[in-house]
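Handoff note, outgoing to incoming analyst
You'll be picking up this chain. Sequence as last confirmed:
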Amino acid sequence: MKRLIWDTIKVFILFIACTSLFFFGLRMLSAEYDNHHRYDPPEGPSVKVFNSEQTLIDRLDLFFRLGE
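Most recent structure output, in case you need it:
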């Protein structure tokens, strides 16, 4: 009976250690990506993707042609 209790305690301690390692690893990753600025203006030879000179008719025509 003592052996069963000791084995259960070892599994519980291993579970707590692995869970803590996973939790703190996720917190470190989260802290790393919180400092990452995704919406900085692009640097270098960037190309403007959106053409704002399209009329509503042109946009509807493209919408219906592509079937979206």
